[in-house]
Automatic annotation (TrEMBL):
Residues 1-38, 54-87, 105-139, 190-233, 252-276, 1181-1202 are annotated as: Disordered. This is Uncharacterized protein. It comes from the Eukaryota. It comes from Coprinopsis cinerea (strain Okayama-7 / 130 / ATCC MYA-4618 / FGSC 9003) (Inky cap fungus). Residues 108-139, 1181-1192 have a biased composition (Basic and acidic residues). Residues 252-267 have a biased composition (Low complexity).
């Protein structure tokens, strides 16, 4: 502390030397000496506080501080949140010291007594070690600043107050506090820290901030009207308020430090594992796993030496010619891959017997060859026979299960340790390396980089893009910013993990868990195909795994090791397209599971917990008296006083997701619990049970952002079950309630049976290409109804069939849900559609609680978690793209593929593990050598290809004949001039759909088949629906004669919010001829049961949910060619290369049109009433290179330079080039 002489020297310094202290630090008084002396006394005590606090926690730092004195600018410019928090604490204690000085003037207390009181305030130790360290550092900086010879109190106050204000602003924005919080909020100017006024304390005292009222402060200093007892009471209150303030500031400092550390970066220290701090076993186990994952290395993984060498020194794949000698063995093995081993051996023996010279590898040898070529070798971990845990990480040396106490190894096996059971993990690294070892595979993996570039280009131009992939979501667009790392480049890979359990046998306990990796770098058209899905692990049964983290550990440990290779640059792989080895960072973006499985992945409480929202929103549920199950009811029940659940109504329109910082703060609260009671309280208040293992990954979308909604289980299982339980009257009814008041119960008795028959009859109008058609719900609803059945029944048939069954107010509520789901399950959603869906879901949930729950405590169980989750769906689309790309359908399909190949039922778990390993090796082999991929099916005899993927199929008429129907004859003659045509019965669209016609389905042999001839098509710049009469071929193209339906019934259309489009069938009265590329997709037309007063014979359009049209109407030019710039550009480059300029493709700019869909399936800008698309014109080029309005084709180009300039102009201005450019190029030729 500086001497008194030094203080006097500074007190007597001329006014030009140092600025006067700020107003908040000035004491009242008269004369210049009094005005100078009082703030310096206050400032001296401020320095004393900082110095004393610092020395109490770090007495050895004084010499270090003197040796390493920081410059004034560096200290004063400190912007650390922790330093700002400590600065706020110092400022407030200065204010408290100010009050004590005023008390000294009233009571003439000695300076020693005043300092003693302040020292008592600052002497208590901090409990948290990190907070203590940060407070020491910030105190050191503050003390050094005060020790400067010309330290300016005003600069100190300004810098510390500004830092504190910034901290409080950020805390307010992150935590969503109200106007006031525990410490205080900004009010008025930035130079004034204010707190909520207290009725007991004046505006000018320590708890309410600096006093700006000089008159009241003077009155206080003089002690006018106060007795000695009042003064003593005021002094005690000052000290108590100071202590209270100190505690609050210490708490704020600790929270700010945790926020600073959590928000600074998601990248852990590469040399230091994450700490393990909890004393609660569940939390500590998870922390142990996370800590091990955070410092994972490939050397510490259970990898063979050959696999490890391949990961670190990748080489180009074996040449095709070197593999050719084993081609027959490989082809035979792949053809027999789904059969028993005897099939391969028998065929091999037969071939070698008839051709002795054939060299066909044995089954063992061919499997070894595939493992060598792909580099995929499984890793096995011992596990408890009851599925309690896997013996990995800190459990690897245990000989008995810590849960059930059963031994790890079999008895009487001699010197060899044989485990009872083993779980299988298929390493991700070799599977990812295989994806880019062929040019086709590497090119397919570039989709993500191209997509992201197009999105960023559009955003820079201010263009609103639709949500048509996960990369359209804000979290993926800002991935690099969220992680505070360079964003993913074209060499990096984005992956997701999906887990779920399944029963191998219906009538036998056989619980088996599966995991798969999904590679998001692929185009969605191929991303979810079986050959692009990478198996991750298989956990054998028959018991359900208990400590799932131990089974997930191996997969995530390996992923972390890949991320941390080469000092965080990623692992190495060979890129065939580049012809070189590149480093790739695998980014983890999503972890998906059903509602039950997600608990094991994200570490949150179950859906019946107090905060059971799967997305972790702050909404707290309510439970019935003496019942421990929470229900997410937004509206508070009437006459409800259950402690902890009687909070007011939640705002349906303001449901928030937690931030990463909030999640980490809550997680630390859980980890800090030292007793079981404290842990349960923290778990109830935060909704978190334990940390998720994903927290240990270096490159991962941080929790809770990496978890989203699974539409499959949520919309197509949970929501239909919740609604039908109410309508059928099977929902539990408490004793204080009565079902007689349930006017929504209509699905009972004869009405319900008739309803089931209507569902059965609808099957004949539904194409077999649609999902599995639902069984009769009146008979089979409780017999394992599948998600595909619920989807078809509840959301597609339901709007038609429930319309005459449900009371109107319940049907209107239901139809809002249907319309919103129709939007949200699409693979391409515009912002306008998303806003519509969000609005409808808010209305649905709010009306649901008013209609069914009715604020009755005995009906709280009506409010199921799936109802609340609906409020998050639209926001999730904005955050991570359409939910269609993150459903569990992919994993469910993979489980079906693996389990259907089980042949050895005596050991099914070992069998399915081997099937999974083989599947990963097949996929890798096909990725490295695309020639091993399954060949496309051959076309039927007498089929006719018509270009662009359209294929006409028989039956067909013997020859071209005259049509007997005058209406059909007139329609075809007027459109094409043909008087005779040859009719065809079917056509295959490029999307794989087979569309039939009335000509084919009216034949006697096909009368009982499902109707598969109704289509959605583009006609005269609008969308129409029709029935195909027949197809015919004309001038190289396929045409169809269609009978269009009428325009939709306006009343029904508006009543059902566009969810039901009812139309009349017009037959031969509305025949049109359309080209095959005008057919968008296959639909179903269902008869509409009419209500009283409605016209009969109405048919309802019913499409397959989540299926987009074949292509948007703008993508097809008048001559059938693709109208995208990239397609035309490729044709131009091809023509130029034929002219001798082979390098032209590398010199032309690569522009993109963002108003039209691109041929490589890039995003499409929505066309709505709010966006005007200007017409495009083609500008020809004169011989001198200038523009011309002459659109006639040129005969000859003077120079190739002018043509290059024209092409450059095409790319830069994004003009429309359709038929005219083709004519122009023909002119140049």
């Amino acid at each position: 502390m500086p001497s008194k002489s030094a203080a006097k020297k500074r007190a007597g310094r001329p006014s030009g030397g140092a600025k006067s202290p700020p107003e908040g630090l000035q004491a009242p008084g008269t004369g210049d000496d009094a005005q100078r002396e009082q703030p310096l006394q206050t400032y001296a005590i401020c320095r004393f506080i900082c110095k004393k606090t610092f020395r109490n926690h770090n007495p050895e730092a004084t010499n270090r501080r003197k040796r390493n004195r920081k410059p004034l600018e560096e200290v004063s410019g400190n912007s650390s949140k922790a330093a700002a928090t400590d600065a706020l604490r110092t400022v407030q204690e200065v204010e408290n010291s100010h009050v004590l000085l005023l008390s000294k003037k009233r009571k003439e207390i000695s300076p020693e007594e005043s300092r003693s009181r302040i020292e008592e305030v600052s002497h208590e130790d901090h409990e948290d070690e990190r907070a203590r360290k940060r407070l020491r550092e910030s105190s050191d900086q503050m003390f050094e600043f005060a020790e400067q010879p010309y330290g300016d109190p005003e600069r100190i106050a300004e810098s510390t107050t500004t830092g504190a204000l910034d901290l409080l602003k950020e805390r307010n924005s992150l935590e969503g506090t109200s106007q006031w919080d525990d410490v205080g909020m900004l009010q008025g100017t930035e130079n004034e820290l204010a707190r909520p006024p207290s009725p007991e304390v004046g505006i000018g005292d320590a708890c309410n901030g600096p006093c700006s009222d000089q008159e009241s402060l003077s009155s206080l200093s003089s002690g006018a009207g106060e007795t000695s007892e009042d003064q003593a009471l005021r002094d005690r209150q000052d000290i108590l308020r100071t202590l209270h303030l100190r505690e609050r500031l210490e708490q704020t400092a600790a929270e700010s430090i945790s926020e600073t550390e959590s928000s600074a970066s998601n990248t852990p220290d590469p040399d230091e594992p994450l700490p393990v701090t909890s004393t609660i076993e569940t939390v500590r186990f998870a922390e142990e796993f996370v800590s091990a994952i955070s410092v994972a290395t490939l050397d510490g993984d259970k990898l063979d030496a050959a696999v490890l060498d391949r990961l670190r020194n990748p080489q180009p794949p074996m040449k095709d010619r070197d593999l050719e000698k084993h081609r027959l063995s490989l082809d035979l093995y792949l053809d027999c891959k789904t059969g028993a081993e005897d099939v391969y051996n028998s065929v091999r023996a037969t071939l070698m017997r008839h051709q002795p010279g054939l060299d066909i590898l044995s089954l063992y040898s061919v499997r070894q060859l595939i493992e060598t070529v792909t580099g995929i070798s499984p890793v096995y971990d011992d596990m408890c026979i009851d599925g309690c845990c896997a013996y990995v990480a800190f459990l690897k040396d245990k000989l008995v299960c810590f849960v059930c106490g059963k031994p790890r190894y079999l008895d009487n096996t001699g010197n060899k340790l044989v485990p009872y059971q083993q779980a299988c993990t298929i390493p991700l690294g070799p599977q990812l390396q295989a994806l880019k070892q062929s040019k086709d595979g590497a090119l397919a993996m570039q989709y993500r980089a191209r997509k992201m570039q197009d999105i960023l280009d559009a955003r820079s131009r201010g263009i609103d893009i639709p949500f048509d992939d996960i990369f359209s979501g804000s979290d993926l667009i800002n991935l690099g910013k969220i992680l505070d790392v360079p964003p993913p480049n074209e060499d990096d890979i984005l992956i997701g993990l999906s887990i779920d359990g399944a029963q191998l046998y219906q009538d036998k306990k056989s619980d088996t868990w599966f995991g798969i990796w999904i590679v998001y770098d692929y185009d969605p058209l191929i991303r979810y195909k079986r050959r692009h899905i990478l198996p991750a692990f298989i956990i054998p049964g028959p018991e359900k795994p208990k400590n799932v983290e131990s089974f997930l550990f191996r997969s995530l440990y390996h992923l972390s090791a890949l991320q941390r290779e080469n000092s965080g640059a990623g692992f190495k792989l060979y890129d065939a397209l580049k012809g070189s080895v590149v480093t790739s960072r695998p980014f983890f973006v999503f972890g998906t599971a059903d509602t039950v499985g997600l608990v094991e992945l994200d570490g949150r409480v179950g859906h019946q917990g107090a905060k059971g929202c799967r997305l972790g929103c702050p909404m707290k549920g309510r439970h019935k008296p003496n019942v421990g199950v929470y229900n997410p009811a937004h509206l508070k029940p009437n006459d409800y006083t259950v402690d902890g659940c009687d909070h007011p109504d939640y705002d349906f329109r303001n449901i928030q997701n937690p931030t990463v910082q909030k999640y980490r703060t809550d997680l630390k609260t859980v980890a800090a619990a030292r007793t079981q009671t404290a842990y349960e309280k923290a778990r109830r208040n935060t909704g978190i049970c334990k940390p998720t293992l994903i927290s240990g990954l270096r490159y991962a979308l941080p929790p809770p952002k990496c978890f989203t909604v699974d539409l499959m289980h949520h919309l197509f299982l949970n929501i239909p079950v919740a609604s039908l339980d109410l309508w059928r009257g099977v929902m539990k009814c408490d004793s204080t309630d009565t079902k007689k008041d349930w006017d929504w119960v209509v699905c009972q008795g004869k009405k319900w049976e008739e309803h089931g028959k209507l569902v059965d009859e609808a099957k004949k109008y539904t194409p077999s290409w649609f999902d599995h058609f639902p069984r009769n719900p009146a008979l089979k609803l409780n017999s394992g109804f599948k998600a595909t059945e619920f989807k078809r029944y509840f959301f597609e048939l339901g709007p038609v069939l429930f319309r005459t069954l449900l009371p109107d107010k319940y049907y209107q509520n239901y139809i809002k849900l249907v319309r919103a789901v129709q939007i949200l399950v699409q693979k391409r959603i515009t912002l306008k559609e998303l806003q519509e869906a969000h609005k409808l879901l808010i209305q649905y949930v709010e009306e649901f609680e008013h209609l069914y729950y009715q604020r009755r405590a005995d009906r709280l169980h009506f409010c199921r978690p799936c109802i609340h989750t609906l409020l998050h769906l639209a926001k999730e689309v904005h955050r991570v793209g359409p939910g269609a790309y993150t459903t569990q359908y992919t994993l469910e399909g993979t489980i079906g593929l693996l389990t259907r190949d089980i042949r050895q039922h005596s050991t099914p778990f070992a069998n399915v593990i081997q099937i999974g390993v083989r599947r990963s090796q097949y996929n890798a082999l096909q990725a490295i050598y695309p020639q091993f991929a399954e060949a496309p099916k051959s076309l039927p005899e007498h089929s006719k290809e018509c270009g662009n993927g359209y294929i006409l199929l028989p039956p067909r008429s013997e020859s071209a004949t005259t049509l007997h129907s005058p209406e059909q004859y007139a329609a075809i003659f007027n459109a094409t001039g043909l008087k005779v045509v040859r009719r065809w019965g079917k056509i295959i669209l490029p999307n794989g759909q087979t569309i039939r016609s009335r000509y084919q389905q009216d034949r006697p042999t096909t009368l009982n088949r499902r109707v598969t001839r109704m289509v959605k098509l583009q006609y005269e710049d609008s969308i129409a629906y029709g029935e195909i009469q027949f197809f015919f071929h004309h001038q190289g193209d396929a045409y169809a004669l269609a009978s269009l339906f009428s325009e939709p019934n306006t009343q029904i259309h508006e009543e059902t919010l566009s969810a039901v489009s009812a139309r009349h069938y017009l037959g031969n009265n509305n025949l049109v001829v359309v080209k095959s590329d005008q057919i968008l997709t296959l639909v179903s037309m269902q008869p509409l049961p009419p209500k009283a007063g409605e016209p009969p014979n109405l048919w309802v359009v019913m499409g397959k949910l989540g299926v987009d049209e074949l292509r948007p109407m703008e993508d097809v030019g008048p001559d059938g060619e693709e109208n995208s710039l990239s397609a035309i550009r490729e044709r131009v480059i091809t023509w130029l290369e034929q002219c001798g300029d082979a390098d032209i493709g590398n010199r032309l700019p690569c522009g993109h049109r963002h108003d039209l869909p691109l041929s490589d399936n890039d995003w499409v800008v929505p066309t709505s009433d709010d966006i005007e698309i200007e017409p495009y014109t083609f500008t020809n080029v004169k011989e001198d290179g200038s523009d011309s309005e002459d659109h006639r084709p040129k005969k000859k180009a003077k120079s190739k330079k002018s043509l290059e300039e024209a092409l450059k102009n095409i790319d830069e201005s994004l003009v429309d080039i359709e038929e005219e450019i083709i004519l122009t190029l023909e002119g140049y030729d």
